[in-house]
């Protein structure tokens, strides 16, 4: 398996989850400005969307988009999925919320030329939307006492919030530190040169 990633991008969530799952995989770094892989390959030939993450499975099939890749990882390692009757759907619901309501809201911070006003508006939206998770983290992680693939994704967007000086509640800050203490997170950060 091959994970195509950019250091610190949303693909970090997949990197963490793959390590947590104990799945064997290689990584290929992608320069998102040039759309070239570390070995000089045109990344558009891998993923025509041109962004990360992409996960090339052992049978050659390609998965893209965090929701799909993280759900697939949870299927391979059920310990990374919540338990319960509607657990799969609650996991997808949480991944979708992180992706569409939080991740997407960071766009002004990554877009060259975005105004300070655009960034301030985005920060206010992100802070409000992150509030949804404050109560959910009382037991430690999003679905209780055990981390899931959704926690890996939430961790990544919270690190972006910290880098862009968006205030985090005490439970969110404690969650970031709890995640940083996990061996898989430390390993993924080191692999991406972010340790």
Give the key terms.
alpha+beta; 5-stranded mixed sheet; 195 residues; single chain
Write a structural description.
- The protein is an alpha+beta fold.
- The protein contains 8 helices and 5 strands.
- It has helices at residues 11-21, 66-76, 87-102, 107-110, 116-136, 149-163, 170-180, 183-191, and strands spanning 2-5, 26-31, 36-37, 54-56, 62-64.
- Helix 1 (11-21) runs parallel beside helix 2.
- The radius of gyration is 16 Å and the shape is globular.
- The relative contact order is 0.15.
- The model has no long low-confidence stretch (mean pLDDT 96).
Task: Provide a concise account of the structure shown.
The chain is α+β, with helices and mostly antiparallel strands and 195 residues long.
How do the strands and helices of this protein lay out in sequence?
Layout: E1 2-5, H1 11-21, E2 26-31, E3 36-37, E4 54-56, E5 62-64, H2 66-76, H3 87-102, H4 107-110, H5 116-136, H6 149-163, H7 170-180, H8 183-191
Parallel strand pairs: 1-2
Antiparallel strand pairs: 1-4, 2-3, 4-5
State the oligomer: single chain
Uncertain runs with pLDDT below 50, 5 residues or more? Answer: none
Q: Give the distance, in angstroms, between the N- and C-terminal Cα atoms.
A: 24 Å
What's the Cα radius of gyration?
16 Å
Average of the residue pLDDT scores: 96
Shape: globular
Helix-strand pattern, N to C?
A: EHEEEEHHHHHHH
Instruction: Note the beta-strand portion.
Output: 5-15%
**Strand arrangement, major sheet:** 3-2-1-4-5
Provide the helix percentage: 40-55%
- Find the count of extended strands (DSSP E, 2+ residues): 5
The chain-level structural class is: alpha+beta
Count of DSSP H/I helices: 8
């Amino acid at each position: 398996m091959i994970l195509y990633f950019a250091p610190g991008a949303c693909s970090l969530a997949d990197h963490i989850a793959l390590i947590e799952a104990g799945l064997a995989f290689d990584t290929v770094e992608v320069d998102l400005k040039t759309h070239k892989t570390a070995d000089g390959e045109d990344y558009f030939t891998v993923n025509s969307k041109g962004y990360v993450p992409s996960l090339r499975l052992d049978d050659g099939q390609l998965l893209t988009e965090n929701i799909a890749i993280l759900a697939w990882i949870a299927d391979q390692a059920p310990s990374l999925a919540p338990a319960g009757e509607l657990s799969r759907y609650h996991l997808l619901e949480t991944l979708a919320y992180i992706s569409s309501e939080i991740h997407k809201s960071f766009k002004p911070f990554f877009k060259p030329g975005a105004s300070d006003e655009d960034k301030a508006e985005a920060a206010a939206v992100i802070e409000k939307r992150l509030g949804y998770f404050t109560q959910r983290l009382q037991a430690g992680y999003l679905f209780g006492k055990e981390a899931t693939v959704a926690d890996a994704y939430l961790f990544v967007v919270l690190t972006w919030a910290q880098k862009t000086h968006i205030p985090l509640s005490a439970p969110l800050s404690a969650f970031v530190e709890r995640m940083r203490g996990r061996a898989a997170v430390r390993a993924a950060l080191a692999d991406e040169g972010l340790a």
